[in-house]
Specification:
The complex is a heterodimer of chains A (about 400) and B (about 500). Chain A is an alpha+beta fold and about 400 residues long. In chain A, about 20% of the residues lie in helices and about 35% in strands. Among the domains of chain A are: about 150 residues, Gyrase A, domain 2 (2-Layer Sandwich); about 90 residues, Elongation Factor Tu (Ef-tu), domain 3 (Beta Barrel). In chain A, helix 2 crosses helix 7. Chain B is globular and about 65 Å long. Classes of the chains: A alpha+beta (about 400), B alpha/beta (about 500). The interface between A and B is medium-sized, with 18 and 17 residues. Bound molecules: flavin-adenine dinucleotide.
Chain lengths: ~400, ~500
């Protein structure tokens, strides 16, 4: 006997039937209540699809909120640190939002779908916060995660694939732009966005057209090396692009208990997203103070010698003095495309200036026994992977 | 520039006036802007029928803090000092108490009452010290705050082990349980319950009604008086003290915006479009109105806005005024008895039952009544031989199901009259004219959100460190130069002046 009236399982995205067909590893994890594949057949092959052809990743579980109403712009402008007045219809903004103390709650993307109509996407759920933020503003908030199916289509051949599928207007679509097409009588939204730091797009459609979209996409991509991918491949790509992941590179402020475990946008290298010329935004007062007095932490992008991944390592200012621990690694990987041992980390001020050298204590296991190396790490300024094709409009066809 | 001030105070309630006077005494150029045509806020006397006047909201003085009286040099002109409280019984053998004196109850209750009263006075004295200074901030490093906190701990400890335990036990407790344990006389229990819950959205069985009772006693030990010329008489005196110190007052000037630039106040704007400039704005309006309407959420942080928006402040106390052609007959009453404070609250259950209705958005069928006949000691309020009856009637919830209309108002005033009739058989023949002010009317006429007595419920979660909300308990709002000085700030409502005085001290310390 099954208790049908109590829903306890994980949700399946509308693409689930197609993904399971391609999946041979059967490793799933929970992403915001949905089943999401970690890898489908081979992590490495999936990763190389992103960098050499095209990888397709199901982003339906990404939390989506629709924000409309006369005050939508003012509302968002107060919510996030960057100036939303500059984000015109048809544009997308990467943004962070903070609590009253100027500590990052999450980052996400805000799509200006049409005049005065926005979609906010983030990894974590934030409805209670968005609702609290709406007090005194004439806006309508709608949680629409399940109402929109979405795919990330990322990689050098993605442009050609979408053109082959019949998407119109792609030639003029710049990074962080969005367009609307029609697909089998439904609206298909295409944005030039993604989490891979490469040429790529995201497709947004009503769930009842999801499978048809998948089929059309894979049909169009047959000759272009299209492959479905899982979160592990994507996770590696995002580290190469030096994108932040909540719960790895920062903790959403509302989920932390201990003081000092949160980070401000300034401490995460996101100064460029904080616009102090705005009259007000949440956390402004605290951040202004931080700007005057100096931040406690700095985010660093590290290029580390050797090939031992520096997961969870302590960071030191000097090689010999282990007492001078100044921070730790939050994300690390061996980057196949850059052939670099890369990492993101958090270090105490004043450390963390690009060009400086730090030391990373790496523990690694070889046949059960542990080894330790002190590896030299240089702080780099730019993302590890930043290909020219990512910004080129129109992109080169294949 | 002539419209430039050292400080602008929004609202001429007693707290606003006291604050402005204390600021002006130091030589500051202070402007007070009052929405209404009269100075005093909820402490005014006004005409409610031809030739009849009454204290429109607050009618009894029992909390005006000695520190305030001293600092301003107020000399209250009492029409009746140290009133007795008479709890009406049907048979005319009424209970009377004043301070620790009590009559009409048995010896056991008398003994227990004295003990109870003494202990409450002791605890209220402790409380009083902390009502008359800014509350310390928790988790602070500020030495002054740490000293206050340490002293609070020390003061509690110094009472001795038994008393300390008793204090900590009682402070969050409901008064019902305490009264039930101590007394047998239901009228006494009803009256003390009433003293604890007047002005709140609480019944005697609600938590922290001992605290509200202690708050009532803090300062004057519950000594109740009335003022010559009604509460407006006191305000006239405070007004002249303020004006004597140089305060400029503009009535009929409703502020509709506190101007903010770059996180700091720059001045205010009135409904009439006048602009006044100052880098210090002090609001006597309630916290919700001040922050949500006058400043506006777009200038505020999200969590802070959320907290302010959630302040519980739905009034339950209504005011009923009757113009009388003669005093009604009350069994067992002598002439002088009409000069006292009279309660109709025949038992603790009666009070709780009256509150039950309010929980569900209904007005009480048998309301709790606090009654005075101010014209018996003050001939300025009614023509010769005629009288005024001033009643605080509870519970008339702000959020009445279906809203307040002429019918629902009639229904409530009928309920009050029906209760009166069981003690004053000829009341109907005495009434010439009447006025009922529900919390909805009080909101409209006195510009108090929810028409709440305290500008925000008086409960432990909105008390001391967290009044009006966490992180802003020291009169300073998160906009530079913006302060609160009204009942919604620490310590709370009632004609006490503590909020206005404490706020002035904080503002002066900042300079
Ligand atoms: C029915 C009732 C009975 C009460 N009875 C008693 C009693 O017997 N004894 C007692 O001690 N207490 C009593 N109280 C409580 C007491 O009246 C209040 O707590 C006290 O008056 C609050 O004083 P205040 O100065 O803080 O605010 P208020 O008296 O409310 O004054 C605020 C002033 O600000 C003005 N204002 C508000 N907004 C604006 C604006 N935007 N622009 C310009 N001006 C503005 C208002 O018009 C008002 O004049 C009673 C309260 C009620 C509701």
């Amino acid at each position: 006997m099954t208790a049908q009236h109590i829903f306890t399982g994980r949700l399946k995205t509308p693409f689930h039937p197609r993904i399971t067909e391609l999946d041979s590893l059967n490793t799933w994890h929970n992403w915001a209540g949905y089943s999401s594949a970690e890898a489908l057949y081979c992590e490495d092959m999936e990763y190389f699809a992103i960098r050499n052809s095209t990888g397709v990743f199901d982003i339906t579980p990404m939390t989506k909120y629709r924000i409309t109403g006369p005050d939508a712009l003012n509302y968002l402008d107060r919510l996030v640190t960057r100036d939303m007045k500059k984000i015109k219809p048809g544009r997308v903004a990467y943004a962070v939002w903070c609590d009253d103390q100027g500590q990052v709650m999450d980052d996400g993307t805000i799509f200006h779908l049409r005049e005065g109509e926005y979609r906010l996407c983030s990894q974590e759920r934030h409805f209670a916060w968005l609702k609290a933020a709406s007090i005194g503003f004439d806006v309508t908030l709608k949680e629409e995660t399940a109402d929109v199916a979405a795919l990330a289509v990322q990689g050098p051949t993605s442009y050609s694939i979408l053109k082959n599928m019949g998407v119109r207007g792609l030639e003029e679509l710049k990074p962080f732009g969005l367009i609307h097409n029609e697909f089998l009588g439904s609206e298909l939204m295409i944005s030039r966005t993604g989490f891979t730091g490469d040429l790529g797009y995201e497709l947004w459609i009503s769930p009842d057209k999801a499978l048809e979209l998948w089929d059309a996409l894979f049909e169009a991509g047959k000759e272009y090396g299209i492959r479905a991918i899982g979160t592990h491949a994507l996770g590696l790509a995002r580290k190469e692009a030096a994108y932040l992941a909540p719960f790895e590179d920062f903790l959403p402020a509302e989920t932390t208990v201990r003081t000092g475990r949160t980070r401000s946008p300034l401490e995460l290298g996101l100064d460029w997203l904080v616009d102090f010329s705005k009259e007000n935004f949440n956390g402004r007062k605290a951040l202004l103070k931080e700007k005057e007095n100096g931040s406690q932490w700095n985010l660093v992008k590290l290029d580390i010698e050797g090939n031992k991944t520096a997961d969870h390592s302590y960071i030191y200012a000097h090689e010999k003095n282990n007492k001078s621990e100044i921070g730790f690694i939050t994300s690390a990987a061996w980057s196949p495309i850059c052939k670099q041992n890369i990492a993101l980390g958090t270090v105490r001020s004043p450390h963390g200036k690009p060009g400086d050298t730090l030391w990373v204590e790496i523990y690694y296991q070889r046949e059960m026994h542990w080894n330790r190396v002190m590896a030299e790490a240089s702080i780099v300024d730019k993302p590890f992977w930043f290909p020219a094709r990512r910004g080129k409009t129109p992109p080169d066809p294949f | 520039m002539t419209n430039q001030y050292d400080a602008i105070v929004i609202g001429a309630g007693h707290n606003g006036m006291i604050c402005s006077a204390l600021l002006a005494k130091t030589g500051k150029k202070v402007l007070v802007l009052e929405a209404n045509d009269q100075v005093g806020g909820a402490a005014i006397t006004r005409k409610f029928a031809d030739d009849f006047s009454v204290s429109a909201c607050a009618h009894l003085l029992f909390q005006l803090q000695p520190d305030v009286i001293k600092d301003l040099g107020i000399e209250p002109d009492y029409s009746k000092k140290s009133m007795e409280t008479i709890v009406l019984t049907e048979d005319g053998n009424h209970i009377r108490y004043q301070g620790k004196n009590i009559s009409g109850v048995n010896e056991e209750d008398k003994k227990n009452y004295i003990e109870f009263h003494n202990r409450m006075i002791r605890f209220s004295d402790l409380l009083k010290t902390y009502l008359n200074k800014r509350p310390p901030r928790l988790g602070t490093k500020n030495t002054k705050d740490l000293m206050t906190l340490a002293k609070l701990g020390f003061d509690i400890r110094r009472m001795g082990k038994t008393e300390m335990r008793e204090f900590l036990r009682l402070i969050g407790m409901n008064i019902y349980d305490e009264l039930d344990e101590r007394f047998v006389n239901p009228y006494l229990k009803g009256a003390l319950s009433t003293d604890a819950v007047l002005g709140t959205h609480l019944g005697p069985r609600s938590p922290n009604t001992i605290l509200t009772y202690l708050y009532r006693l803090a300062g004057l030990h519950g000594d109740v008086s009335s003022i010559q010329g009604g509460m407006g008489g006191l305000m006239n005196q405070i007004r002249s003290i303020a004006e004597g110190s140089g305060v400029e007052i503009k009535t009929n000037s409703k502020v509709n915006e506190i101007s903010v630039s770059n996180g700091a106040v720059t001045g205010v704007q009135t409904e009439g479009g006048e602009k006044y400039l100052s880098s210090t704005v002090v609001s006597n309006a309630d916290p919700k109105q001040t922050m949500m309407n006058l400043v506006g959420p777009k200038h505020l942080e999200i969590r802070f806005t959320h907290r302010i928006d959630n302040i519980r402040m739905r009034g339950n106390a209504s005011k009923l005024h009757f113009a009388l052609n003669a005093l009604p007959k009350i069994p067992g009453f002598e002439d002088l008895d009409y000069q006292q404070r009279i309660l109709i609250a025949p038992s603790e259950h009666y009070v709780e039952k009256a509150f039950n209705h309010a929980k569900y958005g209904e007005s009480s069928v048998r309301p709790v009544l606090e009654i005075t006949f101010p014209s018996t000691t003050d001939s300025s309020l009614a023509p010769e031989g005629k009288h005024v009856m001033s009643i605080v009637a509870q519970y008339a919830p702000y959020h009445l199901k279906g809203g307040w209309s002429n019918e629902s108002k009639q229904q409530f005033s009928d309920a009050v009259k029906s209760v009166l009739k069981s003690h004053m058989v000829n009341i109907d023949q005495c009434i010439i004219s009447e006025e009922l002010l529900t919390p909805a009317d009080i909101e409209q006429e006195f510009n108090i959100t929810g028409g709440h007595w305290h500008h925000g419920e008086f409960t432990l979660d909105q008390f001391m460190f967290v009044r009006p909300v966490a992180g802003s308990s020291q009169y300073e709002m998160p906009i530079n130069g913006l302060f609160l000085c009204g009942a919604g700030s620490h310590p709370g409502g009632g004609i006490s002046g503590a909020c206005g005085r404490n706020a002035a001290q904080v503002i002066l310390q900042r300079d």
